[in-house]
Amino acid sequence: MDQQTRQALKHDQFVDTAQHGLEWASEHRRSVITSSVSALVAIIVIVLGALLYNHRADQAATEFGNAMQTYQTPLAQPGQPVPPGVKTFPSAAERAKAANQLFMQVADRYGMTPGGRLARYFGGLTYLEEGQNASAESTLKQVADGWNSDLSTLGKLALAQLYRQTGRSQQAIDLYNQIAAKPSASVPAGTAQLQLAELYESQNQPEQAKKIYAQLKDKDAKGPAGMIAAQKLNPAPAVGPMMR
């Protein structure tokens, strides 16, 4: 077969392939166009969704910052001199009430954003500070059941404190053990174990507390929790009056 014939065959094969492609495209033109449009619409929806989410996340962060400013407002007793233009609250409970309204607004409006989730946690804390235990419990349970491990363990820790204050020690013990079994960056296992040991001490169960302190001391001797545990096991002797 000479070179000219081979080139002719190659050319014919190319033409045949191209023709086949054109025929297929013609036959499937509607489905190709539909698929292309669907893909384009999906991309547009994803991009718009991302832009909307980012916008809402920014709004949540701004409003959360405003709520934190209220929560950090200084306290001043009646009659106490206050610099001009400085806002104060007469009590921690009133400050918590004002901040709680702002935190819960952010949580309800932007609950799917990082700022909204964090606002719900602080909403639970401020309910607790106000003395609204039922609202604090339901809010902190939502935080504790969330998928974010850092916020979840913070919620559980605050919830355990509420259970301690309301005489539900066993529920607090269960939560401390849960945190110790699955700690997070926000609440290390040692923090939960120290809280658990203190709970046992408050219930006149010193042996249970000592057991936890001993475990912490052996496991994390140079860490903060281990050092605190060592001090609990071997408290410094009280310094008596100097002899003359």
Structure description:
- The protein is mostly helical.
- The chain has helices at residues 3-27, 29-71, 92-109, 114-130, 133-144, 149-165, 169-181, 189-202, 206-219, 224-233.
- The chain is globular and about 85 Å long.
- The protein starts with a helix and ends in an 11-residue tail after the last helix.
- Mean pLDDT is 83; it is low at 3-11.
Précis, in short:
This protein is mostly helical and 244 residues long. The protein contains 10 helices and no strands.
What is the succession of H and E elements? HHHHHHHHHH
Radius of gyration: 32 Å
Report the count of strand segments: 0
Main pleated-sheet profile: none
Helical coverage, percent range: over 70%
Provide a count of the helices.
10
Give me the secondary-structure category.
mainly alpha
Which regions contain 5 or more consecutive residues with pLDDT less than 50?
A: 3-11
The rough form would be described as: globular
Our measurement of the CA-to-CA distance between the termini, rounded to an integer number of angstroms, reads: 124 Å
**Average pLDDT number:** 83
Strand proportion, as a percent range, falls in under 5%
Topology:
Blueprint: H1 3-27, H2 29-71, H3 92-109, H4 114-130, H5 133-144, H6 149-165, H7 169-181, H8 189-202, H9 206-219, H10 224-233
Keywords:
244 residues, mainly alpha, 10 helices, 75% helix, disordered N terminus
